[in-house]
Amino acid sequence: MARTICIANQKGGVGKTTTSVNLSAALAHIGKRVLLIDLDPQGNASSGLGLKKSEFQDLNIYHVLIGEKTIVEGTYTTRVGSLKVVPSTSDLVGAEIELVDTQHREFKLKQEIQSIASEYDFVILDCPPSLGLLTVNALTAADSFLVPLQCEYYALEGLSQLLNTAGLIKKNLNPNLHIEGIVLTMFDTRNNLSHQVVAEIKNHFGEKVFNAVIPRNVRLSEAPSHGLNILEYDIKSIGAVKYLELAKELVHRVDSLSVQEQNQLINNDKDIKLNDNSITEEEING
Question: Does the 3-284 domain belong in CATH 3.40.50.300?
Answer without folding.
Answer: yes
